[in-house]
Amino acid sequence: MRAAFLQGAPEQIASVRDFAVPAEHGSIPVRVYHPDPARTLPVVLFFHGGGWTVNDLDTHDRLCILLAKGSDSVVVSVDYRRAPEHKYPAAFEDGWTALHWVVGGAPDLGADPARIAVAGDSSGGTIAAALALKARDEGGPVITQQLLIYPVTDYLDPPTGSYVSRANGYSLNLPFMQWSWENYLPEEWSREDSGLFPLRARSLRDLPPALVLTAEFDPLRDEGIAYAERLRGDGVPTEHWHFDDQMHGFVMQTRAIARARKAVEDVAAHLASGFRRDAEEGGR
Fold this sequence. Notes:
The protein is an alpha/beta fold and 284 residues long.
């Protein structure tokens, strides 16, 4: 996976710093991207995809830089513990710890703790969505936006239509998702656990505004669409962008696919617009 994603020269940004976030199990590596260290900017807490098993800070370095520059925000990429050595809820717990660290350490990061978005692609989108639910249920920290890029929101059995029609032949397939769930799930788990399956949450009301991306040639397509529809149905301001000519993982292909580059630019602009709205509402 690293070989596939690390080809070519890296994107450039003003500041990249690595930190170790203190945690009960030791520390959580994070990488902080700042497009203009002289300014205090809103922050995006980002979780990479990879079935909770593969990928790391380096594989998603290019995407995080593009998001930071395009949204004019600080991106904090979290290298959460991965399966199979660390099963659920390890990754989710690391995300929660990182969220509190961002709020507590924001002055040192050049970040505005009043404007925090959670974001992630694929299994990272699951972590982001679950954090938004936990923050709502526990009264904070306040999250002002969520960006969910072709997220995993439910289990693969019973299969959705896209799990049947897109099971094989594309960048993400059914065998990989079966392997990922086998790696990630503990011996005992509940289908109603919204930390695992955000779509199964009893209510999605009062969550932060969301942008959900889905791809046509993706086994996860239908559960992403279902999550966007449930968010809207529960009154959450939600935009759903469906890419009818793309596969799972396309936002990682910004050097090879023109529409992927444009999609990331548009996503970053959407985040920037949301942060401007937050600033205006906070000043009232």
